[in-house]
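[audit] Reproducing an earlier prediction to check determinism. Same input, same settings, fresh worker. If the tokens differ from the archived copy the diff job will pick it up downstream; this log only records the rerun itself.
[audit] input (156 residues):
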Amino acid sequence: MAACSFGKGRCLYMRIQTRDFGGIEVAEEDVVTFEGAIFGFEEYKKFVFLFQEDVSEHFVWLQSVEEPDLCFILVEPELVAPGYRPGLPRDVQALLGPGEYMFWLIAVIREEFQDSTVNLKSPIVINPATRRAAQIILEEDYSLQHPLLANKEGGC
């Protein structure tokens, strides 16, 4: 388990507890602050992006630093929706600061994995330079429950 490193320079480490991975150390500079809260979890602002080397780089875990049991599975948009390029409203750009933005999709993993979905309408947006993030609701007509896996005909 490793944190996605957004920082540059010397690291101070902190130990956090997680539901899925137990106690882990993360660099303080890798903590991301949600300026625009995750819907339904407004009281939690500090998160780290974690990845497992033995799992695809297209999946990450968004782990709360404040609540060990709060963790989301995120998917890189290109994996499930090639060409996904939503417009980012100016107010979100102002909130996150200038720079390049990364989009991640929240996955809902179902008991029957083939029924799992991602939310294209409300992505997580992060500015790695400022380590600020937000979940936004896009004005474009995107699906709230887009299939995680391609269907048998080869489409999504």
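[audit] rerun output stored. Observation attached for the diff report: Residues 152-156 have pLDDT under 50 and may be disordered.
[audit] end
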